[in-house]
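[job 4471] stage=fold_predict status=RUNNING
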Amino acid sequence: MKQSKSIPEGYMTVGEVAKKMGVTVRTLQYYDKQGLLSPSAESEGGRRLYTDKDLITLHQILSLKSLGFSLADIKQQLISLDTPSDVANALSKQADDIRQKIEQLSASLAAIEQLRTEVLQMQTVNFKKYADIIVNLQMNNEFYFLIKYFDDDMLDYIRTRFDQESGFAFIERFNRISDEIIQLQKDNIPPENEKCQTLTKVYWDLIMEFTEGDMSMLPKLIEFGKLNNTTNEWEEKQKKLNAYLEPALEIYFSRLGVNPFEGVET
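[job 4471] inference complete, writing structure tokens
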């Protein structure tokens, strides 16, 4: 009874605060030592005393800590809570931090689910490919799923041949010419038509640009182009494109009087 009278009205001991907020006394002592949350007063007997305002500050600290902020970051973010406007601003800042964390977690969750889908479609465990897929997901490369079709040699070639900017630029050009060719297919333009043959040349030039003229890479590209089991809209589009391009390329090479596949094992 005497002990309770020694605590002024409106104040709480470190033990009471710890119990209310679900933390340990040692944690509160550590926050005090780090300059994050110091007691507002001290009793005649030397006991640390906290107020309701201190509880709000502690709530800020615990919330930011749960979001992954370091104590150093938290110390910089804590602001005064002397007016209603201060409290409102603190809550707004905390809400913004939570929204940002939710976005990050949502992106991480989506990446994990996408990687899981790709892992199940691959026939072997290949952590190098998994890493490539994760990197491309982080870069927001919507064509990350293509990685599973390439072997390690092809992936090594792509890494050395393209950086992020040039890789995206090449894919954009490839998709643009593919869309134009598919439109001809939709318009029922025959493969021997000059419009089709003009776009076929552009398409083949892109292939040569990609391979840098290395014909030994053609079998891998042909294998990739088969796409027997399509899993998304882009792959389905490429399957239709290949069906239309195959006779168009035969006509194109026939007119040139060349066979680029001669001597190449396919």
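[job 4471] summary: The two ends are 92 Å apart (CA to CA).
[job 4471] exit 0
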